[in-house]
Structure formats: C-alpha cells, structure tokens
Amino acid sequence: MSATRLKYFQTGSFAAGNRLVDPDQRSVQSDPGRANAITCGHRACQGCGEALGARYALDAAMRATGGDLIATNATGCLEVFSTPYPESSWQLPWIHSLFGNAAAVATGVAAALKAKGNTHTRVVGQGGDGGTVDIGFACLSGMFERGDDVLFICYDNEAYMNTGVQRSAATPPAAYTSTTQAVGDEPGATWGQGKSVPLIALAHEIPYVATATIADLRDLERKVQTAMEVRGARYIHVLVTCPLGWGAASADSIKLARLATETGIFPVWEGEHGDVVSVTKIRHQTPVEEYLKLQTRYRHLFLPARREDIIERIQARADRNIARFGLLEAADDDPLDLQVEAGS
Amino acid sequence: MFEQIEGSQAVARAVAACRPEVICAYPISPQTHIVEGLSRLVKSGRLAPCEFVNVESEYAAMSVAIGASATGARAYTATASQGLLYMTEALYNASGLGLPIVMTVANRAIGAPINIWNDHSDSMSQRDSGWIQLYVESNQEAVDVHLQAFRLAEALSLPVMVCMDGFILTHAVESVELPGQEQVDQFLPAFEPRQQLDPEHPLTIGAMVGPEAYTEVRYLAHYKQMQALDLIPEVAGLFEQRFGRSSGGFLRHYRSDDAGTIVVALGSVLGTIEDVVDELRDAGEHIGAVGIRTFRPWPADEVRAALAGAKRVIVLEKAFAIGIGGIVSQDVHGALAGLPISVHTAIAGLGGRPITKASLRQLLADARAGQLAPITFVDLNHALVDAEIQRMLSARRSGPHAENMLRDIGIVGAGPV
Known about the structure:
The complex is a heterodimer.
Chain A (H helix, E strand, L loop, with lengths): L14 H5 L29 H17 L3 E5 L3 H6 L11 E3 L5 H14 L6 E7 H6 L2 H10 L4 E6 L40 H7 L4 E6 L3 H12 L5 E6 L3 H4 L6 H10 L6 E4 L2 E5 L8 H5 L15 H18 L9 H9 L1
Parallel strand pairs in A: 1-2, 1-3, 3-4, 4-6, 5-6
Antiparallel strand pairs in A: 5-7, 7-8
Chain B lengths: L1 E5 H11 L4 E4 L6 H12 L7 E4 L3 H13 L4 E5 L1 H6 L1 H10 L4 E6 L13 H4 L7 E4 L3 H18 L3 E6 L7 E5 L3 H7 L16 E2 L8 H30 L7 E4 L6 E5 L3 H14 L4 E6 L1 E3 L3 H8 L4 E6 L10 H8 L6 E6 L9 H12 L6 E3 L4 H13 L6 H9 L8
Parallel strand pairs in B: 2-3, 2-4, 4-5, 5-7, 6-7, 11-12, 11-14, 14-15, 15-16
Antiparallel strand pairs in B: 1-8, 6-13, 10-12
C-alpha cells in the first residue's frame, strides 16, 4: 500500500497541514483541480455526514483513477438528495437501479468493461447502511466472494434515514429509531442484534477492507486511494453522522464522528486478505457518555432518570472494541503517536 | 446445418452466435442447461470476449445484466419460475431504464405448491413488466426467435423475454437447424447503446422522477412497445428472407381462415392442438388454431383479424389469474370487442399436467354441443377437490391442502392417473 499516512494534529481545515507537505501528498479536497464528483446544489440536510463522506471518497477515487470512474448507487438519501432531476450533482457516470442491488450493478459494469477489454475505467458502488448491511447484503457478499473488481463504499448512518429513521442492522443497541422507540424496560434498539459488515467483509478475505469516519477525512481519502491501487473486491465502511436521525446539532457532525472513534464505539482499522493490518489509535480516550449525551436518540438514557445500567453496557461494548482492536496501545512504529503520549 | 440437439443446448448455441458480452447465471430448473452450455463456451474461450458471471441469485442476475447493459455490453441471462419472480423488481427496473437485455424464460409453474414442471404462470405474471414477451412453439423457433430478440431489443432499447416451455422444449432433443456465425453477424448489427456509462461523457442514469414527468416516462415505455408492433413483423420478415424459414412475428395461423371454432394458445401445446385440428378437419369440422407468438406488445389488430370470422374462440391457457380466470382471454376479449363471437377460457396443463389429444377432443366436443362454460379447468379432478372442500367444512384445523390431496391420491405411480 503506497499511500502515505499523514497526521494533522489540528482541527479545522487541512490548509495549514497541507502547506507542510509535498503537493502530491496534499489532501484531494484542498486541490482546486479536484473532481467535485458530487458537486454543490444537492439537497442534503445541513451537517449531513453522508454528503461529506461521499464527496471526499469519490473525489479521492476520481484522483486515483484520473477521473476514469463509474459509480453505482443504492436507493437512499445519497441517491435522493443528489438527483432531483433535471438537476444532478454527479460529475461522473452514475447509475441508480434499486435499493438492494448496487453491488450487483457494479459487478455488471465491471464485467462489461472487462469484456470490452477496458482495463483503465474503474467502478465504485455506494450505498447507505440499509442498502449495504440489510437489503443489499446478498449482492454485496456475492460481489466480494467472486472477487469482482469493485470498490464498495458504505456510508453508515446507523438507520434508514431516508424513510424516516427506522432501525437497520447497523443501528446500535439502545438507540431510538422510529421502529425502536424509547419505551418499555429496554428502550431503543434491541441488545444482541446487529452485525459488523466490515468484519464480515474481512471474513471474505478480499484484498482490502477499511473503516473510516468523517472525523478523519484525510484518512478516508488515503483509504480510498489505497483501495483504488488494488484490483478485486474492496470495501470501505464510513461512519457518517446524521443530524436528523441522531438528533444532533448540525455543527456537531464532525465532533460526533470523532467521539465515536475516541470512545471506542466505532473502531477504525484496515484489513487485507482476511487480517486486520492496522488500527487508528485512540488519542484521547473519552467515556461513551460524552458521545451519547449529544444525541437525542440516546436521550432516554439520561431523562427522565439516568439509566446507568444501559450506559455501562454501552461503555462495555466500546471497551471490548478497544481491547479487541488494540485501540489504546501505543504503536511503536508511529513516532507521532509516541510524541502525543509524551506530550500529553 | 441440422443437428439432433437438446432445446437448451440449441438455445445456448443461438445465444452464443449473437456474441453476448456479459452472461449472468443462476441455476434453476428447467433453464439450467442453457447457461451450462454457455458457460462451457465461455470457459473454453470459444465465446470471447464474454464474461460469464455466476451470481448468487436471480435478483443479482438481472442486476448484473442491468449494470452490464448500461455500460454498453450485450447482456443475456435465463431463468424460470421462482427465479423470475425473485428478479421481478429488477425486471421492472431494466425496462424502466430502457436496457435491451435478452432473457430466456424456460416456462415453469410457481409455488406454492412447489412444482418444477411446465406452465406459463411465471412469465404471465410479468406481462405488465414492460418487457417484450415472445412465445415459441418449437426448438427451431426458440433458436430463431433468440436472434430476432437481440435485434428487437437493441433497436428499441427495450428488454425482451423469450418464453419457451420448460422440459417440453428445453429438454427435448430434436432436429434443429442452427444458424452459421456469419449469417448471424449479418443479421444482428453491433450493439449501439442509446445511453452508456462512459467517463468521457458522464451521464446520470436512474434519477428520481416525480409527478411532473413520471407519466411521460411510462408513456414512452408504452410508445416503444407500440413501435415494436411495427418492428416485430419487419424483423421476422428480414429473418425469413435471410434464413429461409418463417419464425417469430405476431401469430401463427393454422387452418383458421374459414374456421367457425378457433383455439388460441401459446407455446408448444400448439403442436398437439394442430394434430387435433387435423383430425377434426378430416371429420368435416370447420376448426382451426391461432398461436400467439407475441404477447407483449399485444397485437390486438392482428388478433382481431385472425379471429373475426369465427363464431367461437377457445383460449387455451397454461396459467390463470386467480379470482377472475383467463389472462390471455381478457386480451382476446378486448381484441374482439363488438364482434358476435363467444370467447371461452380453458385452463390446462398447469404444473406440467399433460394436455392430451383426448382432453382436447372432449373440450371441443363440449364446445360443439354448446356445453362449454365460460371457464373450464381441463382434466380437473373434481373428486379430489370436493374431498378437500369437505375436509375444510368439517374441521377448522383441516391441514395443508397440498399434503391432504396428495395423501388422498396415494403414492404417485401406484394407481391410475
């Protein structure tokens, strides 16, 4: 994997950090010549994490392929807000077919290109968590196991937001959705349900699997670039904030995604051929409560009475991620991490 | 060149001669031999360049075909029965997007009760899906109509379903004249897509369309099927000119010109019907048959012209619309509106039950005697049905119909059929 991992210890824009590195190492999004694959004017909500994630991911894929890219898209927010025809935000060839078949349509595109002897044009499939982990799962798994030359990107906002915030298999336990109401003894989404599609993708032993969030967009760009340097089935699962569905302030979208990683709730890692090969360490471990209390989907954990039992259970889940992926141990091959340890 | 060949293998050879670029396949009887034949051709390198994708479901098969067709590749798949139903959502999508995919449907019953044998319930369920539907009577016609299907699909930017009776045709070995590659290349021009996913010319395909234009987009799908009414006979005519035999088109007329009674049917059963027509003609009856080769678009004018001289029309259907009756019959009724012709529906051959000459002779005798009901279930075992109805009346927990009735019949093959 030749993409260079860069760390910017700052918040806000990438502009300052970019000035410190070679032009070809600078972030895609800071490049005035970027593709703007999903361009302005779309109808996403203020603070939409999916729009942000898709923009960074696709622009990175466009740069990696020199703009020689075709995208397929599952039904969902991304599809609806980007194509209020005759307007379309897509500056690349893009097809939406159905909710559950974006990965299979991408397979078809890749097969057609192969049959035509076109080895340069690349294919990206995209969907939300519903179109990926639920209704699109069979097509996704089929695409993985056949090793079709497709990068599939899931923008996971943890529920069916387009239809009005219903529970998906990516909805975390205890979260309110409009089909897991905050009522009864165990309010919110049921414990013991849900699945990790990144780990399932890894189990297919495909060449590349990664998770990412919109809190570390440079990392997302790098992972997309890495994925585009590989042939075969690849998968990137991006945690994207949904202010509407999560009941959070639009201004907190990035903060929430960062808290999801700093608490251990959403582990960020990369895998190759069935093995996890790198993880993004937690820099400032944060209790899950800091993450939960910013979202009204977890309000019932604090009001009318504090549900210490449930908060502890969520903390235990995060702690398990931290232990399982080694999210806290300092990486001895990463001097920047060591400096942070020393300086904190 | 004539060959003794299984119907499925003949279709595989015909499809291969059309140089498909992407074939996606999911096994389901009785279609499977077709894609097995194509797989062998692709894997051996004899059909190149072509990608053969073993998908995980029929839903994926049609979705892969959608992606491939939208990328400008000639795409083909085949299915039957449950598989066709499983890809229903994608079928509507392929036609809605105007993608010229060609698919063979090896007609088979749909469950429950699960049944692998032939009838037309599967493709009839998709009559409104926006696909052109062509039905074939023989394996020769199956071969010929597949060549025409690709030409029609690509000329119109509409998907085409070639419906051939499962087992009766797909598994029958008979003499078939297979077209030469050069002949096919001359008949079928290269695929020039109307829309293509191409980084040089970025397009958005599959946008949401609201009330402001949805009707118009749907109307255009209808308009293109109406265009097919012009194109189908044209392509069939060109085919006859190039290959020297008549196949495809709208209808097959069999001794129907002066017939007072005409039997209308689709697919392989026409062979049996034509034998009975011959027998009854020899006995002095004015009887004929009309085969429906194009069901969608519905060639209403041609059907009306073909049947206008009859007094009585019997539509023999291998499927029916539960709760009302015949499916094709309704369209025949519509085509004959205002004419003094009595139209009867005969439901026959469901789930592979043989349609025998004896059954047809009885049906036509009843018609001659003026005793034919508007709807007849040919060879229905009334005793078996009545026993189950009695069971339902006598106990609330009467159990599953299929299992009860099979128990009543006893071990299959142990007694008289």
